[in-house]
User: Fold this.
Amino acid sequence: MIGRAPRWTIVVMGVIALIWVIPLVGVVVTSIRPLDETSLGWWRLDKVSLTTSAWRRVWSEYPLANAFWTTTRLAGIATLLTMLLTPAAAYAFHFLRFPFRRLLLLIIINAFVLPQQIVVIPLFRLWREMDLLDSFAAVIIPYVGLSFAWSIFLVKNFLEDFPKDLIEAAKIDGCGPLTTFWYIVLPNTLPPIFAAGILQFLWTWNALLLPMLFLRTDVPLPVVLARVAGTYDLNWDLRAVAAIITAIVPLMVFLVFQRQFAIGAQVRSGAKE
Amino acid sequence: MSSGAADRGATSRPAREGRPEPADTGGWRPWRLTDAPAAMFLIVPVLVLFGIAVVYPLIETIRLSFYEIRGLAEPSYVGLGNYLTLFGDPTFRNTIATTLLFTLGVTAISVALGWAMAMLCSFAPAQTLPFRMMVFAAFAIPETVSGYMWVTILRPDRAGLLNSVIGAFIPDFSRAWLGDATTARWALIIAASWSAVGLPLLVCFAAVRAIPKSLIEAAYVDGARPISMMRHILMPLSLTGVRVAIFINLLGALRAFDIIFVLTGGGPVRATETIGYFMYRESMTQFKLGYGAAATVVLLIAVSVVSIPAIIQRTAQAK
Assistant:
């Protein structure tokens, strides 16, 4: 705390924060009020009643249940892959010697620059040739591959403070490079691994561009929402439910794991703290 | 258990403070000749995925930008043809203008607001925690969702919040905000800033909190009031955080796609397309793959130029 808190700073921040959540409140209110009551605006109080009608009907109107399951699997697999492969590579880059080590490292950690748009055209052609369009791999491979740039950087940065004595002790006790990784380094590197996993989860869950282009039958939530968002249909209540269902998991994950997110977010975009 | 490991690391090398000098651990590796097989085992999965997802697309996008490709037909080499067409294309020139306006607008608005909020919050961190959470909530939800929320706010009828608020002062006011090129552009900037402000708040708040307490107490003793405290102590001493936030949001805005797709779809009449959207439109809906690839290369140059300082920093520090 900085000195005595002047009350007006709290009030001003509170007003800003209230303005900030108005769009969120609007969507929630629209989803639980009958459509005819909100046709002049969700804030109108001429007649107030609550209904779960939209929440019950939406499942048959939009393929939300299937999309939720698809999104969960996509984000889950991508997160597991990142949490598994990243520490192994970061450990090898930091503690082991092999040819072209520094060159490979530099190429990988500087790839944070690349936007996801870079993979659209080449991978669309490649997947079409390999008959991989409409498979989960078509989406998971690029999203995991693109994130190595920041996830490896994140874990390797953490390893720079890893006590060398521990590694030496393990070596004296007869551990090779692999057993040292598994028994000594991995259990002590969980915070950055979780940070990388959470960023990967949020990124894959929220992804629109590649799933929209590479998936057909089973599509994730953002693709379903984007499809119905721009149409001129008048199901404002149903679409509000769809928006809430798309947002609820990343919102919870973010609020619960805020600290890990803060560690990772800066690294992900290439700016070290 | 993390802090345990970090603490022991700190005690074994007490001189190290933050960033290591390259000479420190540069040559140190516990194993030697036997490393290569183990390293290969650990690293090959990453190299394979990275190769497919990054290296191949990068080279292939650049290569394809010199070809004309229509659908499934064989690509034909056109040299710089795509680039010449690109810069003669009025739509693309408009796209560049939109990209500049959008990127700079979103970065300026979100960083300025996030920074101001961070300083406001620093006077009473505990009491303002719920308020910060409310702003983070806008940042945490997917861009598709925030885009959709702004669709509802900007509805052309009176059920749109914006029309309704203005209508309270001007009778019978109603405007199709997303139907006009100028207002649609600004709507996009405001909507994107609304979500993007969370990160500057996060980063700047950490920077403000890192200012030594003694400096702040000294300012209080000298009779500083909140405004002058912000102006003379908090602002100049949190600039590192601001720089980080500017960089992250610049890069994020340059790559924007989701919010544009949901909110305006690039319209009206392609007026709100940025380069990252233009490449999608040309390659995936018009099937001009070579032309889209050339636009992607332009985007690539833009993000690389913005990232030069970060690339230099990373390269110098990587050991």
